[in-house]
Amino acid sequence: MTSTPRTAAVTKSVARLADGREMIYFDETSHEDRVLVDPRDLPKVIPGSQVRYDALLGEWVGIAGHRQTRTYHPPANACPLCPSSPTNQSEIPSPSYDVVVFENRFPSFAGTGDIAAVTDPAGWLFRTRPGTGRCEVVCFTSDHHALLSVLPRSRMRTVIEAWADRTAALSGQDGVEQVFCFENRGVEIGVTLAHPHGQIYGYPFATPKTAAAIRSAQQYRACTGGNLFGDLLAGEITDGSRIVAQNEHWVAFVPFAARWPVEVHLYPRIQVRDLTELGEDARDALAELYLDVIRRMEGLFEDSLPAITGVHQAPVHADPRDYWLHLEVLTIRRAEGKIKYLAGSESAMGAFVNDITPEVAAQRLRDVWVPGADHAGSVTR
Ligand SMILES: [Zn+2]
Fold it and tell me: Mean pLDDT throughout 220-234?
């Protein structure tokens, strides 16, 4: 194991699991009880992913048939993301941790390679490539029953540090074209492990939504000379009706054409391509505003909040002029006891119909009182 101080607050240590997968601890405090050796006898998983090109839609699709045997709703006393104990040898050999990242045992994408190495024995219509890339798990806390939203801002800050660190690392890996940090939250979303955690995908292609946004931004720049993301952000600030919260470095708003019942986007005020380009102050401010937003979303419902948080970052080889880092936080809950499902129009046609007007959603979010949050400067409009 090697240790390197990352910032004044976080120390990064790298270790290996029994099957050779990499594990990285991001420590806020010293962990004298750290266990360096994974005692399990773990056979190596040989991923067999590939990506196939959908020639009709112009999109790559991951095909990962080896993932069907992955862990599915284990009981809490057998949680693979809890610290190891005498009765549960988990993925984390140590008896404690703050934030830890490790390679997914059942990755959708894995391995290195040339992302341009396309094969198509039939000519042009059936292009395939190896499913290179990397999939990682990010555990936010050793507390099985916590949520990221109830953890202190300092912990959210450490998670952002881990996201940025992994974005830099995966962006430098052959076979990765775009890095996506995200959290799926709630059984309604399809989460199979209850322990609070997120994931990081290093895709071997620019994802369909990102590619579409870049095409729009390029078109907009060609027509107007402006930056589409920046002009949208400026427009939201000027209009104000969809702003949820803001601080010195970030603005949170419900987008003009929101697809989900409650959907909030967080933009930095200054254009950066990904998390690695954010300064310390902007990372602190993101931790503050993100927690503010997710707590507001929780405050809308008595029910649980099935939610997705996604970090939209520029693909590795994208022109930095045509992208703008932002976060998207959405819930599929549309009312107490009711879920927005992706049915015919959304799933078959890709045409969303939102049951809640974005301006109404923003007003409801502004009206939520968030207990325990430090709102200094975060909710002024
Ligand atoms: Zn757990």
Answer: 97
- From CA 61, how far away is CA 58, in angstroms rounded? 10
User: Does residue 280 carry a pLDDT above 60?
Assistant: yes
Q: Which residue in 25, 144, 26, 156 sits closest to 81, CA to CA? A: 144
Nearest to 274 by CA among 331, 232, 229, 315: 315
> From CA 233, how far away is CA 271, in angstroms rounded?
11
Cα of 82 vs centre of ligand 1, distance in Å, is 4
Mean pLDDT of 94-110: 94
The span from the CA of 226 to the CA of 206, in Å, is 23
Residue 231 in this model has a pLDDT that exceeds 80 = yes
**Residues designated as active site:** 197
C-alpha span between 108 and 47 (Å, rounded): 8
Q: Has residue 305 got a pLDDT over 90? A: yes
Q: What is the mean pLDDT of residues 90-95?
A: 95
DSSP 277: G
- Which is more confidently placed, 381 or 202? 202
CA dihedral 88→94→99→100, nearest 10 degrees, is -80
Q: Tell me: pLDDT of 365 over 80.
A: yes
Q: How far apart are CA 290 and CA 94, in angstroms?
A: 29
Å from CA of 331 to ligand 1 middle: 23
Buried-exposed string 85-124: b where 16+ CB fall within 10 A, e elsewhere: eeeebbbbbbeebbbbbbbbbebbbbbeeebeeeeeeeee
CB burial of 305-335 (b: ≥16 within 10 Å; e: otherwise) equals bbbbbbbbbbbbebeeebbbbbbbbbbbbbe
CA–CA separation, 90 and 70 (whole Å):
14
Query: Which tokens sit at 63?
Result: 């095909």
Has residue 176 got a pLDDT over 70?
A: yes
Q: What is the pLDDT of residue 1?
A: 55
Q: Which amino acid is at 242?
A: R
The Å distance, Cα 77 to ligand 1 centre, comes to 8
CA 308 to ligand 1 centroid distance, Å:
19
| pLDDT at residue number 375 | 46
DSSP string for residues in 230-257? HHHHHHHHHH-TTEEEE-SSEEEE--TT
